[in-house]
Write a structure and sequence with these properties.
single chain, 175 residues, mainly alpha
Length: 175
């Protein structure tokens, strides 16, 4: 490979994205732990309410769960917006630009969910989308406060594993 070649090797790509994902995982996991009351008091919005509201709508379109309160989504995306301010501000601006170009209004004003989902699919390969999706994935599904909503009892290792605790209680498998 010559010095003028600007292509990225697979190894370099995986190394760089691995570091970014690992950082997001740690930050997201740390940001969603703690008591609910403490979290509600500690939520600080990004500089722009527009960014915060756009990220919330985006979050609920990416991982739509009616049983999860907005505060859980909002905490994750607002923390990400503070940690990755430049990327998130640019990403929301890009999302709004594409939304206006394709749908005639900013993302927040698009009321038809399938239109928003199509728009999000068109940007799913961008660093912005990947960061938001990854933060949400770990922030929602690795949050012990939300485990009961998903029917997850938590780790079983400390209790002897699943063989003698819950494996035979699966009601969705046919006999």
């Amino acid at each position: 490979m010559s010095n003028n070649d600007h292509s990225t090797s697979r190894r370099k790509f995986l190394k760089n994205t691995g570091i970014g994902v690992a950082g997001t995982i740690v930050a997201s996991t740390l940001s969603v732990t703690g008591s609910v009351a403490a979290e509600a008091k500690n939520i600080s919005l990004p500089d722009s309410p527009h960014v915060s509201k756009t990220l919330l709508k985006m979050a609920k379109d990416i991982y739509p769960h009616e049983m999860i309160q907005n505060k859980y989504y909002q905490k994750i995306v607002d923390d990400l917006a503070k940690q990755q301010k430049g990327l998130i501000d640019e990403g929301v601006a890009m999302l709004d630009e594409q939304s206006i170009a394709k749908l005639g209004s900013p993302f927040l004003q698009v009321s038809y969910e399938p239109d928003r989902v199509r728009l999000l699919r068109s940007i799913e390969e961008t660093t912005f989308f990947i960061k938001v999706r990854t933060a949400l994935m770990f922030g929602l599904y690795d949050n012990p406060e939300l485990f009961p909503l998903f029917g997850y009892q938590g780790s079983s290792v400390e209790k002897g594993g699943y063989l003698n605790r819950g494996l035979n209680e699966l009601d969705w498998l046919s006999e």
